[in-house]
Design goal:
The protein has twelve helices and 15 strands. It is an alpha+beta fold. It has two domains: about 5-155 and about 335-390, Gcn5-related N-acetyltransferase (GNAT) (Aminopeptidase, 3-Layer(aba) Sandwich); about 165-310, Gcn5-related N-acetyltransferase (GNAT) (Aminopeptidase). Strands 2-5-6-8-15-9-14-13-12-11-10 form an eleven-stranded mixed sheet. Helix 3 crosses helix 4 and helix 11 runs antiparallel to helix 12 (about 370-390). It starts with 6 loop residues before the first strand and ends with a helix.
Length: about 400
């Protein structure tokens, strides 16, 4: 099977993808954040005038789709950067190429060969939040660096996932004695007694109420002066999720569920799921109801939902918050990956990123976060400054 010759085909418009959408959905295997609806929905909201869609299809000679790299080219000319659809605003997790089972390495190699053939069109590749087990994408980066490109790998926060047993009681036995005791007490006090009501969006008519509840409780928990609605303060982020939640609901892959105590919402979960996994995407809490432990109650209800669905895992996504380990989630390493074309400017930027990553790793415990952020902005801006100087000359 793997000896068959493959062809790569770049697609630059959504209309060109129509013959391949069913094949794309098959490769996505039901995973919401790899579906065409998710990634093309992101493109619809986030694409800037200077961006160019550049999805790479990997097909057999007969036309069967066996792989797909959902890319776009950001900016043009000497600053051109290939990025993955969904990367901005941390919208999409578990970045990887889509591939048929067993084709990961081959697909990754074919994507790399395509990028090498058109290397005059790009300056750098930026692949963000890549899991350690993203085999196809890692194969691409390895092939590129073996063929003269410069690569850099920067560790970021991990992705955390709970491997679920068959029953809730079995899951409780995985927890520490103190947390297990606390969960059982909360179960009796609030769920079994009927004091807590679980409401879930089942129809589109309920979606407006559910989304508004999400905005309010998320703002209560994570809102700030600069971001009163937390991550939903960004109009594009909010618009994207208003769009994508409708599609996921129609596909029965949305869990927008909240807990009510005495008729008042106190916690909410905005999640997606497929046959194997529930993805805990965003949440919100009423901080004034701490006496009810709304965070724990919401977590319990979500895990019980996942187990009842027969899911094998509960995915807490990225972020190294301590509570995740308490619920017996295990970390999966993630990295931001960068690749540059060879050349003096590429070497300078590559060296800058290596130095920055070393400094953050060694000095992070003792230097202010704002200085780290300033250094990151400086490196991002360096290439643009050089281009502006060249143009003014």
């Amino acid at each position: 099977m793997l000896s068959k010759p493959l062809q790569t085909k770049p697609v630059h418009s959504v209309s060109e993808l129509a013959p391949y959408l069913d094949g794309w959905r098959t490769l996505a295997s039901g995973r919401p954040m790899r579906s065409p609806e998710w990634l093309l929905g992101w493109w619809k909201i986030y694409a800037s005038p200077g961006d160019k869609l550049n999805i790479i299809l990997v097909v057999e000679p007969g036309g069967a789709l066996v792989g797909l790299a959902p890319l776009y080219l950001q900016n043009g000319g000497t600053c051109a950067t290939f990025r993955v659809l969904g990367a901005r605003d941390n919208c999409t997790h578990h970045t990887d190429w889509l591939s048929a089972a067993g084709w990961e390495s081959r697909v990754g190699g074919e994507v790399a060969l395509f990028l090498l053939r058109c290397r005059q069109d790009w300056k750098r590749l930026l692949f963000e939040a890549v899991d350690a087990d993203a085999d196809a994408l890692h194969a691409t980066v390895a092939h590129l660096t073996e063929n003269g490109c410069l690569g850099h790998r920067r560790p970021i926060n991990s992705c955390w996932k709970i491997s679920l047993p068959a029953t809730w009681d079995d899951y409780l036995l995985m927890l520490s004695r103190s947390l297990r005791k606390r969960c059982r007490k909360l179960q009796r006090q609030f769920f079994d007694s009927g004091k807590i009501r679980i409401r879930q969006v089942e129809e589109e008519a309920d979606l407006r109420e559910g989304f508004q509840t999400l905005l309010e409780l998320h703002a209560d928990r994570w809102g700030s002066a600069g971001q009163p609605l937390g991550v939903f303060s960004d109009p594009k982020f909010r618009k994207f999720h208003e769009l994508i939640s409708k599609g996921l609901l129609a596909q029965s892959k949305l869990r927008l569920a909240w807990l009510e105590y005495e008729g008042k919402p106190i916690a909410i979960e905005y999640q997606f799921f497929d046959e194997e996994t529930v993805y805990a995407y965003q949440a919100g809490l009423d901080l004034s109801m701490d006496k009810c432990s709304p965070g724990k109650l919401s977590m319990m209800a979500a895990i019980q939902f996942a187990i009842a669905k027969g899911c094998k895992s509960y995915d807490l996504l990225g972020g190294d918050e301590p509570y995740k380990a308490n619920w017996r989630a295990a970390p999966v390493a993630r990295h931001d990956l960068r690749v540059w074309n060879a050349g003096i400017r590429a070497h300078l930027e590559w060296a800058g990123w290596r130095g920055y990553s070393w400094a953050v790793r060694r000095l992070k415990p003792i230097i202010p976060q704002r200085l780290i952020a300033m250094g990151l902005k400086f490196i991002h801006a360096a290439g643009k400054v050089r281009i502006l100087r060249r143009r003014s000359a």
